[in-house]
Amino acid sequence: MPCVCPQCTSHAQTLGLDAPPASRAVLRKAFKATAKLWHPDRFEADPAKRLQAEEKFKMIQAASAALLEHFENPVELPMEPPAGDLFTQPARADDEPRIHFHGAHGCYTEEDFPPAALEIVWRHVHEPDRALAMVDLSRHGSPLGDLSQFILFTRQAIYVRDMHGILLLLWYDDLGEVRFVDRRRQGKLPLWHRFIERISGTEQKYSLQIYRRDGSLFYSIADRADDSVKGAIYNFLQQKRPAPH
Question: What is the pLDDT of residue 202?
């Protein structure tokens, strides 16, 4: 159901639409068209135009993410209060836990999903669920990856596409212990891990292990993300763990 709030109307215009999209397919098509039109790589020969395109491209990404969120969770416009009513109901705050990556490479939140991440979200996440954050696990020590491997956090679940291309899913209701494991041996990392640290410029002294409620291991993040990213994920998952019975 499309949202018709003023913000969505403005975002729709950013994507070249007269009104908020009536379906996810319409949103996807509009995003692809405007993103292609304003992709900065098209303006390599014109630095001034490229700067303009970069700003426009960011606006397109933000507009698409906001429209997708409001499409799944439409804003209910307030009704006109009756005459003489001096009280209004305060808006309910969104108390959904957030992940803060502080600009780490290959890490995205819903406000700055790149096109490849949005494609994944559109493919796998359906209302009433909502994508919150994604980490590119395909970097192999490089600041840039291709999202062939990823871990995606939504309001309701964790999605992982592993090195074999298999998609794993864990609902938070089935989330068990989350723990850090020190990978150092006698105070040092193995030679291969130290080499990865050196070429990537990131600390990878710990692995983050995510378990199911029955005690079985769901997924372990080791050398595909630095320790600060693992810490952000850990803090988020601690808030998402179900309360003990």
Answer: 52
Question: DSSP 3-state assignment of 48?
Answer: helix
The residues, ordered by sequence, that sit 6+ positions from 81 with a Cβ below 8 Å of its Cβ are 88
CATH 1.10.3470 fits 6-72, yes or no: no
CA distances from 125 to 77, 121, 130, 193, 197 (A): 25, 5, 7, 34, 33
Confidence of residue 224 (pLDDT cuts 50, 70, 90): confident
CA distances from 83 to 79, 89, 91, 121 (A): 12, 15, 20, 44
Residue 203: count other Cβ atoms within 10 Å of its Cβ. Answer: 12
For 107-240, the fitting CATH number among 1.10.3720.10, 1.10.1370.40, 2.30.29.30, 3.40.50.300 is 2.30.29.30
Q: Residue 210: is its pLDDT beyond 70?
A: yes
Cα 148 from Cα 59, distance rounded (Å): 25
What pLDDT, on the 0 to 100 scale, is given for residue 184? 60
CB-CB contact of 134 with 150 (8 Å): yes
Render pLDDT for 127-157 as a digit per residue (tens, 0 to 9): 888 899 999 988 654 555 688 999 999 999 9
Which pLDDT value is given to residue 149?
92
Domain chopping of the chain, boundaries = 6-72, 107-240
The rounded radius of gyration (Å) of the Cα atoms in the chain is 21
- Three-state DSSP at 40 gives helix
